[in-house]
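DEPOSITED CHAIN:
***
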Amino acid sequence: MNSSTPSSSAGGPGSAESTGPRRNSKRPKYSRFTQQELPACKPILTPKWVISTFLLVSVVFIPIGVVSLFASRDVVEIVDRYENECIPINSRNDKVGFIQSSQDKTCNRTLTVPKHMKQPIYVYYQLDNFYQNHRRYVKSRSDQQLRSPGSERDTDPCSPEDTTSDGRPIVPCGLIAWSLFNDTYDFTRNNQQLTVNKRGISWKSDRDRKFGKNVFPKNFQNGTLKGGASLDPSKPLSEQEDLIVWMRTAALPTFRKLYGKIEVDLQAGDVIDVTLQNRYNTYSFNGKKKLVLSTTSWLGGKNDFVGIAYLTVGGLCFFLAMVFMLIYLIKPRQLGDPTYLSWNRNPGGH
């Protein structure tokens, strides 16, 4: 075969490559926007910039942490765990049997005020190991029924606490309402009753929008097994604030809910006698019950986490700033010429 003979793959006059249409390029049209060449702030993180930034963060965060921590420490809090102490000694081997029986469940507790407590003093009950965030529990309610008297038969999401045995709708229906907390507390100081104000303890938006003023309890806790407290059938749901507070479910298994407010000051050394009714069954799931009396500050209740978090971040930034400063002073490193960076040069070829 003659090596000088033109091959069809060599792009000769008769080749398919020369006669076929030229393929269009998929390269996008050049623009400064698509190539990310618009003017922008592109700081160079030199040692001075990094050290200054860490020092600035520490100067801001450390004072905020100190102030927050002092505000939290100014809150006076009394916590009394009582679920074990309020079971008679001869019934402590069968706590569930006692709490489900008809025996008297009155319990007397004594609290001593450690520091001066300014009004209002908030009374909370705290439950541990109670999973209000369980999916089936959270869904077991009917918001339409709570708002409108014409929707009292809208009980589909409320099973198994939707209707009575004879088919009548339960208002309010669902497991959340059925398990309403029913321990009660009475307070006395020097043989004088301390009034607990239970109005205004719920969110105003809940009272006005989620619970109807013309919706009244019906057939509630009428079954053989009662889950918690009963409701006054003569009061609309918008005025039953214990229920409203309880039905705002908690995200964590340990939570506090507001029971009421004591609107008088308590002095350091005051002895508070508490008469409580230990009715709520937390013994079936090894739950804990606590009574909490607390004041507030401008930051809210007692919460050391915010202050500790700010102090930790501020202290860490200060430590890093000192480390970088020592490295920079003891063993400095020569910086490169920033003019060679791509964004400091004009784009070529366009």
User: Anything to note?
Assistant: The beta strands are 77-81, 106-112, 121-128, 184-189, 192-194, 196-197, 255-262, 271-277, 288-294. The CA atoms of residues 173 and 313 lie 47 Å apart. Residues 1-18 have pLDDT under 50 and may be disordered. The chain has two domains: 40-75+302-350, 76-295.
